[in-house]
Design goal:
With 202 residues, the chain is mainly α. The protein has 10 helices and no strands. Helix 8 runs antiparallel to helix 9. The longest helix is centred in the middle third of the chain and has 19 residues.
Length: 202
């Protein structure tokens, strides 16, 4: 007679992996700490991954072209977060998607990393929701790298579990569901239309 599995034991290897990864682990492994002068002592990941830390270099190591666009990306994310004009936010999201579809996979991971960073300790609930909405628009258009996918999905899942049925929690849950799908489908050929962005965020 076969021995039954212990009740409640999680035998899903994907779940086991997901429980061991986090955005901060991704940051510790991948962020460009040397450029931020953090290798002389203990890396101050808490500061670097905080919402209120201004970026003057990309978070991830990248080539010269991506470095320039990464800083432009950060400025656009800040403008999106602070804009009270829905049409302006829609246009910024389309611009970011177009950049991600035109540039390298390095840039896509940089964009997603910056979005994660900006949601950490965001002091204004409304701004945090906007950042998650921007994350969702991106997740409907282009995937992260295969290396980042599990970290990013887990980050979204953790936020969804923490927030529950709130608007923010539902948005994070949609992100967590969409990222594996877009990773299979691959990036879109074109950036979304304004109507598509608005439909995604209904």
């Amino acid at each position: 007679e076969e021995q039954q599995e212990e009740e409640g034991e999680d035998t899903n290897p994907v779940s086991a992996i997901m429980s061991e990864v986090s955005f901060k682990e991704w940051a510790a492994k991948r962020f460009n700490l040397k450029s931020y002068g953090m290798l002389g002592g203990k890396p101050d990941l808490q500061k670097l991954t905080a919402h209120d830390t201004r970026l003057y270099r990309p978070l991830l190591p990248c080539d010269a072209e991506t470095q320039k666009e990464a800083l432009k990306c950060f400025d656009l994310i800040l403008k999106y977060c602070n804009s009270e004009d829905e049409n302006n936010r829609t246009n910024i999201s389309i611009q970011l998607c177009q950049m991600a579809l035109t540039l390298s996979e390095q840039f896509r991971d940089e964009l997603y990393s910056q979005l994660c960073k900006q949601t950490v300790g965001c002091p204004k609930r409304e701004h945090e929701l906007r950042l998650w909405q921007l994350m969702l628009v991106c997740a409907c258009v282009f995937p992260p790298s295969s290396q980042f996918q599990v970290y990013l999905t887990n980050y979204c899942n953790q936020k969804a579990e923490t927030e529950g049925e709130s608007e923010l929690g539902i948005c994070a849950a949609y992100c967590a569901a969409r990222i594996p799908q877009v990773s299979v489908l691959g990036p879109r050929q074109n950036a979304p239309l304004p109507s598509e962005v608005q439909y995604t965020l209904r």
